[in-house]
Design a protein that fits this description.
The structure is a single chain. By secondary structure, this protein is an alpha+beta fold. It has one domain: Ribonuclease Z/Hydroxyacylglutathione hydrolase-like (Metallo-beta-lactamase, Chain A). The chain is built from eight helices and 16 strands. A hairpin with a 3-residue loop joins strand 10 and strand 11 (about 180-185). The longest helix has 17 residues, at about 230-245. It is globular. The mean pLDDT is about 95. The structure holds zinc ion. Zinc ion binds near residues 108 and 255.
């Protein structure tokens, strides 16, 4: 296996990469002035763009192989660039028929693309033996008629799961096996969830889109243009990062610089995210 892996207690995490997006910082953070970026120029390219990994994680735990988010995928109706995760998944050590659970942090197109594969005119679950775990709050929000009409990826990536009987809708805190707990972190979307990992005395936190860039660890008040409720997203970010700091949890985020395994450190009274690899 050539992809980066990392352990939290007895849980082995594999960093999977589906694509990379280049997004102008001014588009992602429209309320942040150009001058406020000065201390963080190293996060931007020469054209002022952030490079966001579209990352997913596989977690190998006792009797389970769990995938957290499934990238952009290759759905023709989904925005380009198309993802390439499926082409190297087995090489990365993940056999689709071994996956027991798929956790979706939220129902945006860049987190669900490989939920399904095309089969004739239909989409079928890509992980044939897995249960797919989705927030009930997000489900009810994104399956409203106007949301379905505006977001074809919901029809391609989520409705086939319901039809196949492999969808588990959850609310509140929700355990997936012994080590993983899915918990609500609303703001980016109404039902957004993160994943807390506890194993052998160690803790890890897979943020989902609580943060898109390490700059938001320094500045939890910086919400993105994709946050459905920016104020709530900022409050959630503060709370979750404080919990991670106080529990000494490793902090992992799919859009952070690959492979996105990191820890929180404090300098001049402010927390920042430091890559572990
Ligand atoms: Zn995202």
């Amino acid at each position: 296996m050539t992809v980066p892996t990392h352990r939290i207690g007895n849980v082995e995490l594999v960093a999977l990469r589906d694509a990379e997006l280049q997004v102008p910082a001014a588009d992602l953070f429209p309320s942040i002035a150009a001058d406020d970026w000065k201390p963080y120029r190293d996060l931007l390219d020469t054209e002022g763009r952030l490079h966001l990994t579209v990352g997913c994680f596989a977690a190998r735990a006792a009797h389970r192989l769990v995938i957290v988010d499934t990238g952009i995928g290759n759905k023709p109706r989904t925005a380009a660039p198309l993802g390439n995760l499926w082409g190297h998944l087995e090489e990365d050590g993940v056999r689709p028929d071994e996956v027991t659970d798929v956790i979706i942090s939220h129902m945006h197109f860049d987190h669900c693309g490989w939920n399904t594969l095309q089969s004739g005119d239909f989409w079928r679950p890509a992980f044939p033996k897995a249960r797919y775990h989705v927030s009930r709050v997000d489900w009810e929000y994104w399956t409203r008629p106007q949301a379905l009409a505006a977001n074809p990826h919901i029809t391609d990536c989520f409705l086939p799961l319901e039809a196949a009987g492999v969808l588990d809708l959850h609310a509140g805190e929700y355990r997936v096996g012994e080590e993983l707990t899915v918990f609500p972190t609303p703001g980016h979307t109404p039902g957004h969830c993160s994943v807390w990992i506890t194993s052998a005395g160690q803790h890890g936190l897979i943020l989902g889109d609580v943060a898109h860039s390490p700059v938001q660890v320094r500045n939890p008040g910086w919400s993105t243009s994709f946050d459905t409720d920016p104020a709530r997203a900022a409050e959630t970010r503060r709370q979750v990062l404080e919990r991670a700091r106080s529990m000494k949890a490793q902090v992992i985020a799919g859009h952070f610089p690959y492979p996105a395994f990191g820890v929180l450190e404090v300098k001049d009274g402010k927390a920042f995210w430091k890559s572990l690899l």
